[in-house]
Amino acid sequence: MYSPMIRSFLLFLFLTAFIPTPFAQNKELTNESVWGWAFYEESVSGLRSMNDGLHYTSLEASEENASEIVKYSYKTGEKIGVVASSTSVFKDPSKSIDDYTFSKDENQNLIATEQESIYRRSSKANYHVHNIAKAKTFPLSDFEK
Predict the structure, then answer these.
(1) How far is Cα 113 from Cα 84, in angstroms, rounded to an integer?
(2) pLDDT at 145 over 50
(3) Which residue has the higher pLDDT, 42 or 128?
(4) Is the CB of residue 136 less than 8 Å from the CB of residue 130?
(5) In sequence order, what are the residues at sequence separation of 6 or more whose Cβ sits closer than 8 angstroms to the Cβ of residue 109?
(6) So what's the pLDDT on residue 35?
């Protein structure tokens, strides 16, 4: 009757023509849906995991402190406490923390203030080292020059 090659081809045509039809979406693709937010994955940004694996920190705006580095529990999502704030670091609630990094032992923070974008992903800022246990902060350079 039909050769195996022709049978395979007819089976392929049948499967591609009739099987996917019930599973097709009723949504129409538009430029807005393709280039908008319709196909972006959900993500979480702005949190930094701590070494213990039980907590994370986030930089947040605050009415009384301008900005705070807040510690949360992964398990409950509850706020554990404030690691550092504009008031505790600079003694000035109007000066904001733009970015931060913990030391390996998480006893100190490298804090960026007055961050200014230069080009694409490059930026410049004034950096301070904040000792969390001693609650002391010192600048890495003389910012007045």
Answers:
(1) 13
(2) no
(3) 128
(4) yes
(5) 69, 83, 84, 100, 101, 102, 103, 129, 130, 132
(6) 82
Report pTM.
0.67
CA distance 114 to 125: 5
Residue 72: what pLDDT?
95
CA 115/CA 127 separation, integer angstroms: 9
Choose among 145, 144, 110: nearest CA to 128: 110
Q: Which long-range contacts (CB under 8 A, 24 or more apart) does 97-102 make?
A: 97/59, 97/66, 97/67, 97/68, 97/69, 98/67, 98/125, 99/59, 99/125, 100/59, 100/69, 102/48, 102/50, 102/57
pLDDT in tens, 101-113: 999 999 999 999 9
List residues bridging with 138 in a β-sheet: 129
Encoded tokens for 76: 């409950």
d(CA 128, CA 135): 13
Q: What is the mean pLDDT of residues 34-44?
A: 75
Q: How far is CA 60 from CA 82, 93, 102, 105, 123, in A?
A: 10, 13, 16, 22, 20
